[in-house]
Amino acid sequence: VKPLVRVSGLRKYFHSQQGWFNKTPPVKAVDGVSFDIYPGETYGLVGESGCGKSTLGRSVLRLFDITEGEIEFAGQNIANMSDKQLKPLRRRMQAIFQDPYSSLNPGMTVAQLIAEPMKIHGYGKAQREARTIELLEKVGLKAEHLNRFPHEFSGGQRQRISIARALSVNPEFVLCDEPLSALDVSVQAQVVNILQDLQQALGLTYLFIAHDLSMVRHISDRIGVMYLGSLVEEAPAEMLYTEPAHPYTRALLASIPVADPHVQMLERGGISGELPGAISDWPGCKFANRCPRAMDKCQSQSPVMQEISPGHRVACWLFEEK
Ligand code: SF4
Ligand code: MG
């Protein structure tokens, strides 16, 4: 089977806007990431806030220009496509974001919100109306909700509206960028169930972003762990939990029961040291200043991703070929 999405050597740098004389180095939000996503799978992408996972997701959808690298979608290289060239592909790649408050226009009704992407992509009126009803039902909302506004709904219901909206145009690939993070734990399971049912029914492929490994365990087929702009480990989901290899993944797993992982993890000593915001040109392993197993080599040389068992890749000098 060929990958639906193929990312290779992807970089996205943000330059500060302070003027030409300001020599602030760019923030390397995504700094050389390669991975594939296969049709029908859920690829979980995990890492602390600020590690670049949202930027990576948005780069894959080409929501902005990237700095360097290749992105293949359904066999086409979209890395350098213009907005005009991307337009016919946009229908096939949709997104659901963390905060359905800010991603849903408060002045539009549910019916308008779900129909809008279809309008953009040229669906006729009758088709839009029929699909809106059908989708509403698929995400567990009722016809009587159609003329209401986003503020009249709970967070979980708003996320259902976002899902219906994203799926209205029949995409193959959906970026789910922390769709559960703003929801109560009891509601999270319902939204996961809806996403999984729809994936089965419609053959969808997901890139599912979360800051917490416990959140992606059951929904993901494979999981990638990101640290400061780089992918540091990738494995089939169960393998990542039973045989975590990278010291960072191990530390993340050690703090799984913590309610607010990225804040409390630091306090609890799951991982010590500061999360270095923008170490741009650090030559060694970016995790070296927090890694309990750092060696001399880690300070000066950046480890490269290598396969340590079938489907299990890790970037760490501890797994250097002997
Ligand atoms: Fe730790 Fe070195 Fe591995 Fe980086 S390369 S994770 S510093 S052991
Ligand atoms: Mg994010």
UniProtKB/TrEMBL annotation:
Domain of life of the organism encoding this protein: Bacteria
Transmembrane spans: none
Enzyme Commission no: 3.6.1.15, 3.6.1.3
Pfam families per the UniProt record, alphabetical: ABC_tran, oligo_HPY
Classification via SMART domains: AAA (SM00382)
ABC transporter domain sequence ranges: 5-253
Keyword Repeat recorded: no
PROSITE patterns named among the record's database cross-references: ABC_TRANSPORTER_1, ABC_TRANSPORTER_2
MF (Gene Ontology): ATP binding; ribonucleoside triphosphate phosphatase activity
Keywords, ordered alphabetically: ATP-binding, Hydrolase, Nucleotide-binding, Transport
Family in the record: Belongs to the ABC transporter superfamily.
Stated name of the protein: Oligopeptide transport ATP-binding protein
Organism ancestry: Bacteria, Pseudomonadati, Pseudomonadota, Gammaproteobacteria, Enterobacterales
